[in-house]
Design brief:
The chain has 587 residues and is of the alpha+beta class. Helices cover 20% and strands 29% of the residues. The strands form four sheets. Strands 15, 16, 17, 18, 19, 20, 21, 22, 23, 24, 25, 26 and 27 form a 13-stranded mixed β-sheet that branches. The longest helix has 14 residues.
Length: 587
Amino acid sequence: MTRLSTGLAAAAGCLLLFPALGAAQNWTCEQVMVPMRDGTRLATDVYLPRGQGPGPFPVVLERTPYNKGGCARSSAEYFAARGYIAMAQDERGRYESEGEYYWLMDEGWGERQDGYDTIEWAARHPMSSGKVGTHGLSFTCANQLLTAPTQPPHLEAMFCSQYASNSYRDIFWQGGALHMVLPTWLLTQREMVKPLRMNVPGHRGYLGSGDAWTSWYDEHREVGDSFTESMFSDMYNDLVGNPYYNDYWRRLAVDEHYDKFDVPIYHLGGWYDRHIHGTVQHFKRVNEVGGPRGRGRQKLIVGPWIHGWPPADDRVGDMNFPGSSIDHLALRLRWFDHHLKGHDNGIMDEAPVLIYVMGDNVWREENEFPLARQQEEDWYLRAGPAGSVDSLNDGLLSREAPGAEAPDSYEYDPRKPAPTIGGDLFVEPRGAQDHRPADRVSLTYTSEPLDAALEVTGIVRVEFFASSSAVDTDWVVTMNAVHESGYSQLLRQMIQRARYREGEEAPVLLTPGEIVPYTVELYPMSNVFLPGQRIRLTVTSSSFPKWYPNGNTGREMMEDRPGVVATNTVYHDAEHPSKVVLPVIPR
């Protein structure tokens, strides 16, 4: 793996790219090569306040694999203009930094600790007050989470938006199925060894839409090459080559180190973000088991947002959520003003949790998440018809337990995966979308229209009984809110690979035809199902391009070809009471 270093990249340093602009503003900027403990130097743009007094000033730091002169520049300028030393750094092996890049491995508690070393260097800057805060989104949140357990002495506060609590189970092998976010990320970062064959104009080398990935999958399947022949990188081989939870993944397991978090953190998440489970876990677990500066000093805000900083307007996908947009830079400023400058601005007096409740479309303060006052309600999968959708079965979802009922079966052909439509998909379309095209090729269980509003806030759990004609298969469950118009608003979706049903450290294949129980937890959500709306659960065995389809052969992914068609069956009778457990909030 070679680091990116071109003439254009070399011009990304702040002195070369925009000295005149800095001189005209109330900040200046210089690039510094910051030494790490092994002698490798990381390129760091240092934005210094200008005309704002002699200092000293606290430091806010963002470390990024995405080019410090790009997306990190605007926030650095913002903080430097408001009395902070703002630093933006290229991670090891990226752009102007030295060394070899390997996805997140040099960020945490290993032999090299680039986050720790950078924070302590920042605290020693001649104009620094010695107080350092870190901030960022996604990967620039990930490196913060990995650095926190190393406990840099001068780290005073973090603002962390949207990253996983466990990279293995929350990102790359959700439920045991390969999430396609990493191939997409590698392509956008030019880390692929060879380009992909593409039939979609304008998408060669960058799979930015679901249609592009579908084209790749069709050609990949028809040609018959292996996954590594079709797509190859050293990092990807390591990640895909470790399909079970092991020591490779424990090096990135934030959730195994919450007791070492000793810092106040503001956590920002989105109901349509793929990392909302991690965002909630960070908040909850550091509050419970973190160090004395961490326990009871965590904040959480969750809006109806997709992956990324909250949008400037209220639209997410093809729905509008009134009043949901926020000024995230101003929120970060308040957080750091309190913790790094000692301003008594009231931010720590506010409720620890602020959530946007979809359906009601209001912001609401809470003291914890999940909510202590939630009451679990069982809604059972039943035989239909519900008369709500032209699906494979048009089943019912009911508070009444089933008696004697026939099961529902369907054929899952890995050559024809069901489409991913919206939600926390990593390519467009994302967010709130009409899920009916996927509902129609799935089993559906839909309630009667509700007489009264029903709030579901928390983690939905699906407990069901199923069998397969194959030795391995996938189960994908999706929760939708069906509007009176028939629009099926996707809320949350999760997968379970059958071989991982008893744990994630070793496979347990199926006995064809045997009925086995499954429990699938959907990621956190908050939605009020309004009077006249329906609750819908869909069950199928694929969602592409979100997850790489299971070939049903029982072989590991690299050898899982050619696939076989599986007959999959869901049972809902007195002996097998399949159900959805809803965390209902009394109203």
